[in-house]
From TrEMBL:
This is DUF305 domain-containing protein. PANTHER family: SLL0788 PROTEIN. Pfam families: DUF305. Transmembrane segments: none annotated. InterPro entries: DUF305_CopM-like (IPR005183), Ferritin-like (IPR012347). It comes from Lysinibacillus pakistanensis. Residues 41-184 form the DUF305 domain.
Amino acid sequence: MAKSIELSNVTKAYLEEYQRILDKMIQGMTYVTITCSISENFIKQIIPHQVAAIKMSENVLRYTTNIPVQNLALEIIKTSTETLECLEAIQNRCCIVQNSEYELYEYMCAYKEITQAMFQAMCAPPVSNNININYLREMIVHHQGGVRLAQNVLRFCICQELIPILRCMIDTMCQQICDMEKLLDALQDCENC
């Protein structure tokens, strides 16, 4: 079991805002009125996820002086905003594509399993007073969940306009996860010096 660390006032302020963002994301992704359209359900469920990525990145930008973390946060804000705009643009058209009850059940079972694992990992206590390390750990888990959610929806008959957005989301988040893992390793190495 990890020992608890004494948090600085700056870390506490950062984490309080992170917790507000996380609570709003969990609520937004959990309490969605489910329809017979997996495409529509996914869009409504993933929008709070994308908004959280933007808000989490804006939160770290208030505190960090680390240039690679700043650049990464700005990139995540840009790509998440673009994804959000694409999803909102097709939302009303995608609800036309309907799915069977069985498909809906399969989709929702996987969705619940993925989101519960992501929420649990994102709620884990901080490991450091280093806000950059905390942000990267939180965002890696967030993005891994996003990739799994996008892969899940691609297993079903969905709106054709949604498919290229999902593929772009997966590619972007996978690249960002790779960048974040490298940056996290470097920051943790420095902290252990």
